[in-house]
């Protein structure tokens, strides 16, 4: 284990939660009758952005659109790799219009934008991990979209089958600790079928395995820069494990966003050069 892990500075795209709310239910966390504390949500989101900037990362913003309460979950809008964008085709009709706003941002920023041909929810399910893209399916992104991503980016895509509706996106059950050639991940095995679990065990024999409690606290919806891990503050045991592995946990509370089934990573789209 290296005693000094080196961060790689990132560029992120985020969307202010100006219109954030739970107005419909498209995952088991969402109960439209539970109120969201809008001021608290805004403060939690601002603390996340501040933490990114304090650690040297660049944060860009896309203008939020009224009537798109889930647009704050920027991770779902695309996968950006090597300057190319695979724009999402959302599963839920309620979220489909988000693509127009995000695609316009990418085009304006000079990216080559490709459109997903079947349901595909960006970094929610497509997680670049060094030599591979790890790809979730079962609830949202289709295997057809995995194939399209592999063709578009020319990176081997490893399909992983999700089984628990509370972990409906891959980024709720797994995150990349460092994305170098011999990178490592953290994950919650019970979110996957036995076959997919075996694939992960084979690829990442030294992975950090999260407890059920930490997974349910959205501990795996984390962002790592290779050294600092921006992680849900309630995922205590996970933070201890990361600390023992030489990472520096940066605990953040995004409780209001969990009411929509989201967390730190969901709010963060990485713009990979
Ligand atoms: N309410 C949103 C949905 O169900 C939450 C998305 C969370 N994003 C994520 N990357 N897991 O689509």
Give the gist of this structure:
The chain has 273 residues and is an alpha/beta fold. The protein contains seven helices and 15 strands.
Which ligands are bound?
arginine
* CATH class (first level) name: Alpha Beta
What is Rg?
17 Å
> What's the order of the H and E elements?
EHEEEHEEEHEEEHEHEEHEHE
What integer is the average pLDDT? 97
Return the CATH topology. Answer: L-arginine/glycine Amidinotransferase, Chain A
Instruction: Indicate the proportion of strand residues.
Output: 15-25%
CATH fourth-tier homologous superfamily: L-arginine/glycine Amidinotransferase, Chain A
Question: How many domains make up the coordinates?
Answer: 1
> Count the helices. How many?
7
**Subunit arrangement of the protein:** single chain
What's the helical proportion of residues? 10-25%
Account of the 3D structure:
This protein is an alpha/beta fold and 273 residues long. It has a single domain, classed as 5-stranded Propeller (L-arginine/glycine Amidinotransferase, Chain A), CATH 3.75.10.10. It is 25% helix and 23% strand. The chain has helices at residues 38-54, 98-108, 143-153, 194-203, 212-216, 236-244, 255-258, and strands spanning 11-15, 58-62, 78-81, 84-87, 112-115, 126-129, 132-137, 157-161, 174-178, 184-187, 208-209, 223-224, 228-232, 248-252, 269-270. It has a 3-stranded mixed β-sheet. The protein has a 3-stranded mixed β-sheet with strand order 3-4-5, sandwiched between helices. It is globular and about 45 Å long. Residues 26-27, 30, 70, 73, 75-76, 95, 124, 169, 171-172, 260-262, 266 line the site of arginine. Belongs to the DDAH family. Its EC number is 3.5.3.18. It comes from Streptomyces heilongjiangensis. InterPro entries: DDAH-like. Pfam families: DDAH_eukar (PF19420).
